[in-house]
Every structure is written in structure tokens, then in C-alpha cells.
Amino acid sequence: MGDFATDTEPYRRELLAHCYRMLGSVDDAEDVVQETYLRAWRSYEAFQGRSSVRTWLHRIATNACLSALSHRSRRFLPSGLGGPADDPMNPPMAAEVQWVQPIPIRCSTRQRSSRRATACGSR
Known about the structure:
The chain has 123 residues and is mostly helical.
């Protein structure tokens, strides 16, 4: 095993994308990635290398996401977003409700620029 930052930093953007997919919010994902790195740093000396560092970080991130999801309040679908329908026989119209926050292009895993990686939280 080498230095913690050297071994784990290449996976930060990948973990951000993973947490974003689980949480649906860039802000929450960034917080959970920070929590993931904190948990990993605390237990890095006990890491035995039976799996890759990538697999180990993903397991920590998944558990941190599940923990975050269990602690936040449930989001219920609001009823009555619009006025009464003109014809009650027509199927209901889908409301424009934003449940998943779009991830900024600067955080996209397809971007390879180190400048963009720094702007998205990779340091």
C-alpha cells in the first residue's frame, strides 16, 4: 500500500457519479463522497488488500449513500399540482416535477479535463 491520497484520488469522480446515481442530487453526492473519503482514511491502515482499492471505496460509498438515504425524510409526490381537469375522462397530465437534480457538465464523468475535475471537487 502506498500513500492514501495517491491510492484513492483517481476514483473521486467515479465515486461522485456513483453517489449521484444513488442520491439524485449533486450536492448530496459531494457530501457523501467527502464522508466516504473520511471513512476510508480512518480505516486505511486496516485495509488488507483482499479487494482492490476501487472496490473497497465503492463499498464504503454505497454504505454511506444508503445511510444518507435512510436519514433523510421521504419525498412524497405532491397531489393536485394543477387545477381541475376540463374533461374528467382524459388521462391525467404528467406534472413537471423535478425529482432528480441534473448533474452539471463540469462534473460529468465523460469530461477528461483536469481543470474541470478540479472544479467538480477532484483536487
